[in-house]
Amino acid sequence: MDRKGVGVRHLFLLLVALLAGTSQLLVVDANSWWSMALTPIQRPEMYIIGAQPLCTQLSGLSQGQRKLCQLYQDHMMYIGDGAKTGIKECQYQFRQRRWNCSTVDNTSVFGRVMQIGSRETAFTYAISAAGVVNAISRACREGELSTCGCSRAARPRDLPRDWLWGGCGDNVHYGYRFAREFVDAREREKNFPRGSAEHSRTLMNLQNNEAGRQAVYNLANVACKCHGVSGSCSLKTCWLQLADFRRVGEFLKEKYDSAAAMRIGRRGKLEQVDKRFNPPTPEDLVYIDPSPDYCLHNETTGSLGTQGRLCNKTSEGMDGCELMCCGRGYDQFKMYKHERCHCKFHWCCYVKCKRCTSLVDQFVCK
Ligand SMILES: *[C@@H]1O[C@H](CO)[C@@H](O)[C@H](O)[C@H]1NC(C)=O
Ligand SMILES: *[C@@H]1O[C@H](CO)[C@@H](O)[C@H](O)[C@H]1NC(C)=O
Ligand SMILES: *[C@@H]1O[C@H](CO)[C@@H](O)[C@H](O)[C@H]1NC(C)=O
Ligand SMILES: *[C@@H]1O[C@H](CO)[C@@H](O)[C@H](O)[C@H]1NC(C)=O
């Protein structure tokens, strides 16, 4: 080959490298442990001799996760429950937004949108990791797992002296540690070169998984019960209790709103794009790619688009027709709405209601 040919080839390779570096759509594993939310998982003791072993049945596990599955088979059902809780909460928090956390019917669970390192992806990783901490901590308390029991958290200093500490608490300590092993396993197995786009995505996932786990851990609080003569509450027993998962969802939604944009720095670590802001703490969500607008159906980005979504004609927020339909306009139709009404209290003690039907306007994006 002559010199000119070599030069052209170099230029070509350089171009390919540049394009690969800027592309948002990385080839990430499409399978995820999230798919455990979609398959019913049975308790190990219900396994029939000769049936396929649990861990080979579960699709979407990475190598390390499969090993953990073999060691902790009784945990798997709760990981599935945790993923389910996380997905449900995600759908609740995003019900009025263009991207509504909808799932697709395969092991990728959320489809191709998760290949973009966006805020939405950050939230999804955090809330599902949180779901696992929540489910495992509770399962420990309920005596469902062989390797953990009630919380052994130390008595809080500020607990009044005459209150008893030591009811059976949610074991958030164990839940946090197990979720860290299990959820992060798939990220830690990867061996991408430092500074590569894939590596920065791995770092992003790890940070968001941690933020989700910490949310559950930090929101867990003291709960107490009264004892004593006819409810006099002269005696109290207290223990550590998980927060309602809705609280976790709301907390992480706030973290979503304030998520930090990051890029890979010179030393192969994530650094904040805008240095004027406070750097994110381990409780914060981070993202590395801008979000698509989620307006139109797009096979490449995995966006489902907002055609056919209900919107609110009078709202100026994300659920309003203007923003939800991305300016495409909307169709109006009438629908019957059934509700309980004219409720009356009857002595003693029940409430009787009527069923009312009204005609309401509905608006749907074009
Ligand atoms: C999962 O389903 C979505 C939408 O139906 C599709 O775009 C995607 O390619 C599928 N992924 C896999 C791994 O089958
Ligand atoms: C889908 O999204 C990609 C990336 O944003 C964009 O380049 C492409 O034009 C979109 N395709 C359609 C059909 O809108
Ligand atoms: C979420 O959006 C998709 C597509 O835009 C729609 O098919 C689905 O019904 C929505 N889900 C909910 C719970 O609104
Ligand atoms: C629509 O939005 C308005 C203003 O935010 C709100 O008062 C109203 O309750 C919403 N309607 C529905 C049906 O959600």
From TrEMBL:
This is Protein Wnt. One of its GO terms (molecular function) is cytokine activity. Residues 1-24 form the signal peptide. One of its GO terms (cellular component) is extracellular space. Belongs to the Wnt family. It comes from the Eukaryota. Keywords: Developmental protein, Disulfide bond, Extracellular matrix, Glycoprotein, Lipoprotein, Secreted, Signal, Wnt signaling pathway. Pfam families: wnt. It is found in: Secreted, Extracellular space, Extracellular matrix. It comes from Hippocampus erectus. Ligand for members of the frizzled family of seven transmembrane receptors. One of its GO terms (biological process) is animal organ development.
